[in-house]
Amino acid sequence: MDYSTGEMARQLNDSCVGSVDMELFLHYSLIPSLCIILVLSFLQRREHCRQRDDTSYLLGDHFGIVIPLDFVGTFSNRWSYGIAFGATANRVMFLFSEGYQPLQVPQWAQAFVLLVGGIEVGLSHFPFFACLSSEFRLVSSILGFSYSLIWFAVTVLHITQCPHGRFLGRFEAVMFYWPSLLCLSFLLGRFLYMSVKSLRVHLGWELQTEEKSFLEIHQAEHVKQLLRKPPLQEGKKSWFQTRIYEWDPCFQFPSRMIGTVVLAFICLYLFIVIEFCVFVYVREKLDVLEGELESYIASMNQTGTLAPVVLQVKELMNVSKGVWVATILPASLTCVSYLFHILACYRKHMKRLWAGNKHFLPLKFRNPSSSGSVVAIARYSGWQIAYILWGYLIIHVVQSLLGLVIMYSLVLPIIHNQGLEVLHGLGIGILTMSIVLGLMIVQVWIASSFFLQPKVGAADKQKPLALNNRKAFHNFNYFLFFYNVLLGLGACLSRLLISCILGTWLIARIDRTIMQHGYEEADMGFGAWVGMLYVDHCHTNPVLVSFCHVLITGHRDRKLQQAVLYGHPNQSAGSCVSARCRTRWLLLQTLINNPGLVILRKSKLGHGSQEFTQILLTSSES
């Protein structure tokens, strides 16, 4: 981008005042959101109606509870739910930056404001999920399409009015909002497809799909695979399957994991863009400072006492800017690889729990509390995204520091014609480390050759732990005691350095604890991961779900068979009789044979039921 073009875009953005305020629109979007929720709640039937003395009895069986999605056992429409989560990315980043300030409250009450902000964001995007999961496909698809279209139109209007920005110049707003526009476009297409298909079913042009089974197909395939004999020789796997990932047709990730990963990807992208905007702002300030330093050097005619220091400061600023930009890509690729690796670890850990293997977990996490696990599954998705974002920032800082070390230890000395000195220092350092490691290896060789007794058997892999040449061993131990004190200092520093590097490098990995053994409970992120695994293990275990499916289908078949034989003793059990008609026929027979039950029968709100009861009362009186 040309500099003058960027400056012109920034000036246009400074003078641009859009008519659409996305934060204000978020508040107003609660009105249609609540209306859609009320409509879906009215259509949702309640399973248990209240008694007559309860005021909610007047509502009948309407106004049931509407759920956005099943966070535990939903395996259908996974990518639709994931894209719906992606549509909330801009609002989530708005909350993450703590930019939600509708009220002026003290600092100690800031947590309550953020809680209200999270509820408001969830309520404003609730129709996306509720319309995808509703059983009333035609109405929900029309409502979902309309609501998605409103969000899409307002977002496009906001972008077109002020497309440029102060930091990135031209089309800065597009860079921020294109993921949300893409997700909203997908939702528009999804709701349009749902409405067309539901309309065809309603008009009778297409058969209605069968009711969703309690047992998922991949869960049934997993159980079948367990019951089969394992093959004597497995097929040859490719390098990708062996080293990276192998697709398993008997396993599917739940909608929660897909939505978490999609939202984490988009939030990571937005976080990188925001970070780059902050970098542009800081770079502008540094450029101003650099200009002032240059004017100072020019005024002193490069002869002042502070001139060398000023030149070093200018060099540090230039190197820092270059290193920060150069490490954006490796830091982002590291976090992206973590997201894929977390999915792979989820599948691996779930399969181990299904097999009854808990040895990969620390001892304190092998029997977690039920309440803690339920809370953990609610925390996991949000914490995973926050860990990825903060992990990216920490990894970026660490990689930038390593880049500065490499620049000042290798690159800059070579640029300043000090390559021989660098090679000399590097050679001495490598030689020193080689001697230290060589002495440590020699100690091990001496212990193995002179201070251990011979192998008991020829097939033994190593010598037994039995001392030999004890007097020589005691002298060996005594003289190396003082040397190992100095060697231990270096080992201690290396331990600290390695712990810091690994801790910062793995900070975004919520599936792996970075605490020492015995202190794993202090890692709240890992606790949320383990609790989430246990909830999924207890509710989506294929063997358990298959067993419950067999019980439910068997009980249903037995009830159907008994009812058919009772109502039609001369017919076979395989006759196709409507369960509703059969129930009403048995009810009619019971009430005719027992007229006293008519008065005690619970009244219904339906008009047909009242007429039916009145006819029975009249017939019983006559």
Features:
622 residues, mainly alpha, signaling receptor activity, receptor, transport, transmembrane helix
Describe this structure in words.
By secondary structure, this protein is mostly helical. It folds into two domains: 19-46 and 61-208, no CATH class; 256-456 and 463-534, no CATH class. The protein is 69% helix and 0% strand. The protein is built from 22 helices and no strands. The N and C termini lie far apart (95 Å). Its main location: membrane.
Topology:
Blueprint (H helix, E strand, L loop, with lengths): L2 H13 L6 H7 L1 H14 L34 H9 L2 H8 L13 H15 L1 H8 L3 H25 L10 H31 L14 H11 L11 H5 L11 H45 L7 H20 L1 H27 L15 H46 L3 H32 L19 H36 L18 H17 L1 H26 L11 H15 L2 H5 L6 H15 L1
Helix pairs in contact: 3-7, 3-8, 4-9, 4-12, 5-12, 7-8, 8-9, 10-19, 12-13, 12-14, 12-15, 13-15, 14-15, 14-18, 15-16, 15-18, 19-20
Membrane topology: Multi-pass membrane protein
Subcellular location: Cell membrane
Organism: Phyllostomus discolor
Principal-axis shape:
flat
Low-confidence stretches: 1-6
- Radius of gyration (CA) equals 35 Å
Cα distance spanning the termini: 95 Å
Biggest pleated-sheet summary? none
What is the strand content? under 5%
- Which class do the helix and strand fractions yield? mainly alpha
Q: What's the tally of helices? A: 22
Briefly say what this structure is.
The chain has two domains: 176 residues, no CATH class; 273 residues, no CATH class.
